[in-house]
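Lab notes, practical 5.
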Amino acid sequence: MSTLKVLFIAPLLLSSFLILSSCGKNGGLNIFFIEGDKTLGLQTKNQIESAPANYPILNLATNTQAYAYINALRDEILASDQITHKDDFAWEVKIVKDDNVQNALGPPGGFYVYTGLIKYLDNPSSLAGVMGHEMAHADMRHSTNQMTKQYGIPTMLDVVLGKNQGLRTQVSSQLISLQFSRTDESQADEYSVQYLCSTQYHSDGATNFFQKIIDQGGATPPAFLSSHPSPDDRVKNIRQAVTNGGCQYTTICSTEDTDEYTQFKALL
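Output from the prediction step:
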């Protein structure tokens, strides 16, 4: 093949690659195909689980009841027809034993929920709301979209093509503590409502977390939920999303059965 043809075809292929890989609900440019998200998610998972001192994950074999509860909650959310990539990711849930940390980690296609967060929440709808929020970040592909913006297309193309393993490791490490933009956070809140709308859980479940922050005098939310928009705005926006979506359950009420959730927390 002549040099001229190579020079012509290569940019054309790259342009096609960029157009195809940028498709997504969030409308942002993303150099990664979905397989790239899965690869980075798996690498991040391996980094987390190779450091048990930092991430003391409850053993699945000896905590079957706890995992059965949280996996059943996850499965009901996944039954929503609103999740684009529900068949692309493993959506594996792990529980991190640390009662002093109210946090969740969400590498693409799976997440880690701390016992401190689970015990802070009051009912299953609240946990479902938080989990739906984290699942939305993966479904919207916010992580790799942000990495593309941060590093630029040429650099990330090297990661996609496997030319820079060191950078791939660096990127996957960043996914552990990634802070999302205001737009990404708002979109994840909105889609959490959509995911929960057809479930038994209250579709505005995530508001319970933010309302507790407001009631406690505006304490700073944990990094995984960011501090923007403000808790007040997020409660308003989530409830507006419920109204816009015509969801059946529009508020968390005191009559919600919390016995099972209380038993779940006692297992931890």
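Observations recorded by the TA: Residues 46 and 172 are 10 Å apart (CA to CA). The beta strands are 92-96, 104-105, 110-114.
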